[in-house]
Amino acid sequence: MGVPLRRRSGRSTYRESVPAAKVAEVVESAWTGLVGRSRPLRVFPDGCVDLVWDGRGLTAVTTVRGVLRRELPSAEWTVGLRLRCGAGGAVLGLPMTDLTAEATPLRDLWAGRARRAESRLAECDIPGEARSVLEALVAERLRDVEPDGLTIEAARALRSPGARADQVAAELGVSERGLRRHVRHEVGVGPKELQRVLRFHRFLKRVEAVARARSSLADVAAEVGYADQSHLGRECRRLAGASPGALVRSWTGRNVPD
């Protein structure tokens, strides 16, 4: 589940923090969203899975296949844990290719364990308490499963703009076919498609620089690994349903050409 383009928008705020050490092997970050009011939210793909408590239910949210549009409830706050790219299948307990829904109730996957966690979460008065419940839930899950360290390492290597799937496979001591099998199981798409998502996510991290006129779309496109600005435009429309200029405008309101 991707992060918002802006960490503060109107009365809404998004903050990340370091997860507890007991879950750091599979959790990239913990986060809190101060919602303020009910509103629609675009969630951009990043190849990760988030475990999200929104005050109503606990869900597993994945966005590797494209932008997800969600309605934020009018809860005072929401909390989540972002699983590391490559850890989703092992933690959730099924091949990510089987997870067709983009927001799946966790009780559909973990039954009573998830329902008990939801009961505890409903009693939490502050985000910190809810975060501890989520971390305890994942720690309990880790006693039953073996994370796929190979896929986590592969996803980390594939983030590099110059990475090649065949070279990553060789460095990890598996065939290209074996790498594809691991990545599809843990992420939901193959290495090539994951690279496209990770490259797009690198672009999203540079949107602020364009919005603040510190860089241009053409320069950012080259920096993050696109062939040119036109290539960036095609990928943005495919993965976000919007042009690069539209994403920059949504950050700042300034008129930026596509």
Description of the structure:
This protein has 258 residues and is an alpha+beta fold. It has two domains: 8-142, Immunoglobulin-like (Sandwich); 148-258, Orthogonal Bundle (Arc Repressor Mutant, subunit A), CATH 1.10.10. Helix content is 45%, strand content 17%. The strands form two sheets. The protein has a seven-stranded antiparallel beta sheet with strand order 1-2-3-8-5-6-9. Strands 4-7 form a two-stranded antiparallel sheet. Strand 5 (49-53) and strand 6 form a beta hairpin. The longest helix has 21 residues, at 191-211.
Keywords:
258 residues, alpha+beta, Immunoglobulin-like, Arc Repressor Mutant, subunit A, 2 domains, seven-stranded antiparallel β-sheet, two-stranded antiparallel ribbon, 11 helices, 9 strands, disordered C terminus
Count of helices?
Answer: 11
CATH C-level class of the largest domain is Mainly Beta
Secondary-structure-derived class: alpha+beta
Tally of structural domains:
2
Radius of gyration: 18 Å
Question: Secondary-structure element order, as H and E?
Answer: EEEEEEEEHEHHHHHHHHHH
Strand order of the largest sheet: 1-2-3-8-5-6-9
Largest sheet: 7 strands, antiparallel
- In CATH terms, what is the fold-level topology of the largest domain? Immunoglobulin-like
Q: Provide the CATH architecture of the largest domain.
A: Sandwich
N- to C-terminal separation? 25 Å
Query: What is the count of β-strands?
Result: 9
Brief rundown of the structure:
By secondary structure, this protein is of the alpha+beta class. The protein has eleven helices and nine strands.
